[in-house]
Structures are given as C-alpha cells and as structure tokens.
TrEMBL record:
Gene3D superfamilies per the UniProt record, alphabetical: NADP-dependent oxidoreductase domain (3.20.20.100)
Name of the protein this chain belongs to: Aldo/keto reductase
Annotated InterPro entries: Aldo-Keto_reductase, NAD(P)_OxRdtase_dom_sf, NADP_OxRdtase_dom
Organism listed in the record: Streptomyces nigrescens
Keywords (A to Z) from UniProt: Oxidoreductase
Domain NADP-dependent oxidoreductase: 16-311
PROSITE patterns (UniProt xref): PROKAR_LIPOPROTEIN (PS51257)
PANTHER family on file: AFLATOXIN B1 ALDEHYDE REDUCTASE, ALDO-KETO REDUCTASE YAKC [NADP(+)]
Keyword Oxidoreductase: yes
Keyword Oxidoreductase in record: yes
Length: 334
C-alpha cells in the first residue's frame, strides 16, 4: 500500500482511506455482513485510515467499526487509524438540527465515541461543522486537551474556510482538513488548499466520486430510497443530473483509452493533485473497494490531465453540492 502523510504534524496513512458513512446512513439501506467484509478487505489491502462520524446512523457506524476491528485478524486496532467527526445534533427521527462545539460537549461526544468504538484513543478527531455560537479556538482547544490527556492523537477540521484554518492552527497543530474535493467540486483550489499548504495541514478529500455521481455506475434511471441523501442533492436532480452525467460520458472516453474505469480515473485525478491529499473512498461493497484500490495503479501524465480538464472543466458541475439549508452550515462556502 502506498502511503501519504497528513500535513507536517499528522500521521502517515494509507494513500486511500475508507469512508464508512454509507455503511450506516445517507445512501439508502446497506448490508451489514458486506459492510464488515468490506472493512476487513480494506484492512487486508493495507488501508489504515477509517473515517466515521458519531452521527452516522447515530452511533451505528462506530459500533460497526468496533465489530470489524474486533473480528479482523490480530492487531487490527493497532494498524487502523480511526478518524471521527462529532458535533451534529439530531432529533429522534434523524433530522439534523445544528452543531454543538462547546468544550464540555466536545468531551462528552468523545467519551461516548470511545465507548462505542471500544478503544482508548481516537486517531483524528474533528467537529463535522463549526458551531456558529462557539469560536473555533474553543472547540479546537477542547480537542487539544483530549490530545494532552491521551484520548485523541491528532486534531482535524471539516469543511472550514481559510480564516478558520488559520485561527485553529494558531491554537494547536492541525493534521488535516476533511473537505469535499473532486473533479466536479473544485472550490478549495482558490484559497482553502493554498492556505492548508501554507499552514502544513493535509487534506482528506471526501466525495471524490461525488457520492457515486461520477463513478460511472450511476444511471439516469436509478431509483433512490427515501433515506438516500442523493434524492435531495441538487446535483442529482432533473436537468442537473443530465448535465452532470454528460460530463461522466466525456470522462468515460478517457477511461476507456486508459484501460481504467471512470471511478478509477476520478480517484486517480484527486490522488494526482498532491502528495498532501488522501482521498476517502466511500466503498460499501468489496467489488467497489477493489475498483477504488485499482486507482492507485493508474498514472495520469500531463496529456491525460489536460484531456480530463477538457472533459470536465473546473466549475462544470450543475447544481450545488448540498441543499441550501446544508450549504448554510459550510464555513468553507463563506
Ligand atoms: N466531512 C464531511 O463533511 C463528510 C461528508 C460526507 C462524507 N464524508 C466522509 O467521506 C467518505 C466518502 O464520502 P462519500 O461516500 O460521499 O464518497 P464517494 O466515494 O464520492 O461516494 C461513495 C458512493 O459512490 C458509489 N460508488 C460507485 N463506485 C464506487 C467505487 N468504486 N468506490 C467507492 N464508491 C463507489 C457508491 O454508491 P453506491 O453503493 O450507491 O453505488 C458509494 O456509496 C464518507 O464515507 C465519510 O466518511 C465526510
């Protein structure tokens, strides 16, 4: 497995991380047995970085990772690096009602996560979205205290903009910023990515397949379950979907010439953007994971990159990456 290092202070990780969210939430129903097998296959392949959130299935995802690590071959916990997001407030019915970044809440969230994960430390800990009522310094300061106490190894951030990156980095070393980055979500390139680089903060990129939209497996006739985020995501609706899938068709031609799949080209493109970027792939089945791992063998030269740029120019996506009320929570979009 190829490796990368998250920022100047962060850990060395596998070059691809496994995002486990879809195994518990947001993309319709999932298969528990297949989810566990997928995590095991990822560990077998040398993936060390497992990403989760305490609110993915309201604890379900952390319990799943706990079980996967307990039932994996020996020393799986020692090899795995668990990245946890916290802070989301939810109703019993599952609605998201805000974020809590108060220091006491941070420590409370961490206590529950450690219990659910069955571990004595979290490798990277981050608030999923900033709490607008709590300065980032206070939230990050509370995680720094958890680092001091040995419960957390590294501090991360999620979906924050350049100014918040600077303010957070002034409090404590930040390993990585987790943020959406793909061929059709390139908003970080103007200021956020250069700022992260200036501050020595790595990037864990999510949505590298734009939640399956640019995977080559998503068709116009796909029926989405009521509990699938994509059913309300602007990029998956009507004309937007048509225009976005036209981009995928253009990408497919390049993939065919390279003898790779569309998903592999999309992941390889994110890998090519810098050694400081670790794509999180959201595979929830072993066949998808195998495909994603194949991206590590795809080399894109200058000509390939230029062809990809022509097929999917920056800003070509139709529709925002989140519904309006969720866009409002993104510090990175201010
Ligand atoms: N910080 C944040 O705000 C944030 C937000 C979202 C996600 N995340 C993290 O990032 C991780 C990845 O995000 P994501 O799931 O949206 O990313 P993604 O990799 O763009 O999308 C994953 C979806 O793409 C489809 N897919 C098709 N071919 C695939 C392949 N070869 N490999 C993987 N997936 C394939 C699958 O859907 P089907 O199974 O339906 O085909 C899968 O559920 C999440 O699991 C989560 O840990 C973080």
């Amino acid at each position: 497995m190829q490796t990368r290092t998250l920022g100047t202070t962060g850990p060395q990780t596998s070059a691809l991380g496994l995002g486990c969210m879809g195994m518990s939430a947001l993309y319709g129903d999932s298969d528990r047995t297949e989810s566990l097998a997928t995590i095991h296959a990822a560990l077998d392949a040398g993936i060390t970085l497992l990403d989760t959130g305490d609110f993915y299935g309201m604890g379900h995802n952390e319990l799943l990772i706990n079980e996967a690590l307990r039932t994996a071959p020996t020393a799986a916990r020692e090899r795995a690096q668990i990245s946890v997001k916290f802070g989301a407030l939810r109703t019993i019915e599952g609605a998201f009602t805000g974020y809590d970044g108060r220091p006491d809440a941070v420590k409370n969230f961490a206590a529950y996560s450690l219990q659910r994960l069955g571990t004595d430390h979290i490798d990277i800990y981050r608030i999923a979205r900033l709490d607008p009522d709590v300065p980032v310094e206070e939230t990050v300061g509370a995680i720094a205290e958890l680092v001091e106490a040995g419960h957390v190894r590294h501090i991360g951030l999620s979906e924050v903009g350049a100014e918040s990156l600077r303010r957070a980095a002034a409090v404590a070393p930040i390993a990585d910023l987790q943020i959406e980055y793909s061929l059709i979500s390139r908003g970080i390139e103007d200021t956020i990515l250069p700022t992260a680089r200036e501050l020595g903060i790595g990037i864990t990129a999510y949505g590298v397949l734009s939640r399956g939209l640019i995977s080559g497996h998503f068709g116009r006739d796909r029926k989405l379950a009521a509990n699938d985020f994509r059913g309300m995501s602007p990029r998956f609706q009507g004309e937007n979907l048509d225009r976005n899938l036209d981009l995928v068709d253009a990408l497919r031609k390049i993939a065919e010439q390279k003898g790779a799949s569309v998903a592999q080209i999309a992941i390889a493109w994110v890998l090519s953007r810098g050694e400081d970027i670790v794509p999180l792939v959201g595979a929830r089945r072993r066949d998808r994971l195998t495909e994603a791992l194949g991206a590590l063998d795809v080399t894109l030269d200058a000509e390939d990159l230029a062809a990809i740029e022509r097929a999917v120019p920056a800003g070509a996506a139709a529709g925002d990456r989140y519904p309006a009320e969720q866009m409002a929570h993104l510090d990175s979009e201010r």
